[in-house]
Design brief:
263 residues; alpha/beta; Rossmann fold; 9 helices
């Protein structure tokens, strides 16, 4: 049954890899019109959670729902119409042009013959234009820098026109200008009633860009809520093993200043 209040929901998700628990009873939801930031130290389970949400991995326990529907019951095409993933980076083995890669985002929406319409091409062009990389459309992905490839992958996800975006470190390879452009574009995306879940190691940037944050520690949810409530000295010490100062900016957003590693 559709649930308009929960665009994406993780319900008691548990995963073990090679016999080692990686996710333990993870439960939280992302509402329509909301950006949720997912943070935690390396190995906390963030990428595994994304793999479960995109059905690359099957959970041992629990389930993931999109608009109330279990993704396990969706066809790949149906899921791709509702959820798009931006990985950290993708190794491209063939010299696809950037414009072709973005146009691939339209695949779930194509008709039986699989031919792109003028509208599909226009949506792909607009996605490249929105991120300031339309000039890369005819360039081979093999020729692009890591940051340029990342922008193309974000454009592909936007061209896919999903209800939910999953972004795994979408700004990791980007300069400050393009980081801002990507986050502004994601904010415009959710302003239309859609949702985004964003992994980022840049806690200060994430805190200024998301509505809520979820901290993972040891494969489970350690804290969740508004950034100002989640990014506390105590939580940073428990989750990241650092002593840090948390300064409030004039707008109330927390600024994290690491001082020392204590474990």
């Amino acid at each position: 049954m559709s649930d308009p209040t929960r665009a994406l929901a993780f319900e008691g998700v548990g995963v073990a890899l090679a016999g080692t628990p990686v996710l333990r009873d993870v439960s939280f939801a992302v509402a329509p019109g909301e950006i949720v930031g997912l943070a935690g130290c390396n190995g906390a389970g963030k990428t595994t959670l994304f793999r479960v949400a995109s059905r690359v991995l099957r959970p041992d326990h629990g389930e993931v729902r999109v608009a109330g529907r279990p993704i396990a019951q969706m066809s790949p095409r149906d899921l791709a119409r509702r959820l798009a993933v931006v990985p950290q980076d993708v190794a491209v083995a063939f010299p696809f042009r950037a414009g072709e890669v973005v146009l691939m985002g339209r695949s779930p929406h194509l008709g039986g013959l699989g031919f792109e319409s003028r509208e599909d091409v226009a949506l792909a062009k607009r996605a490249l234009e929105d991120l300031g990389v339309l000039h890369l459309a005819d360039r081979s992905m093999l020729e692009l820098s890591g940051g340029e490839r990342q922008l193309v992958l974000v454009a592909r996800a936007l061209a896919q026109d999903p209800q939910v975006l999953l972004l795994d470190e979408p700004t990791a390879h980007l300069d400050l200008r393009h980081r801002t452009a990507v986050l502004e574009r994601v904010r415009r995306f959710v302003a239309t009633g859609r949702s985004a879940l964003v992994v980022s190691h840049d806690l200060t940037l994430s805190a200024r860009s998301v509505d809520r944050m979820v901290l993972l520690e040891g494969g489970t949810v350690y804290a969740a809520g508004p950034p100002a409530e989640v990014l506390t000295v105590e939580n940073l010490r428990a989750v990241f093993g650092i002593d840090a100062e948390v300064i409030r900016a004039p707008d109330g957003a927390p600024l994290v200043v690491p001082r020392a590693v204590y474990r």
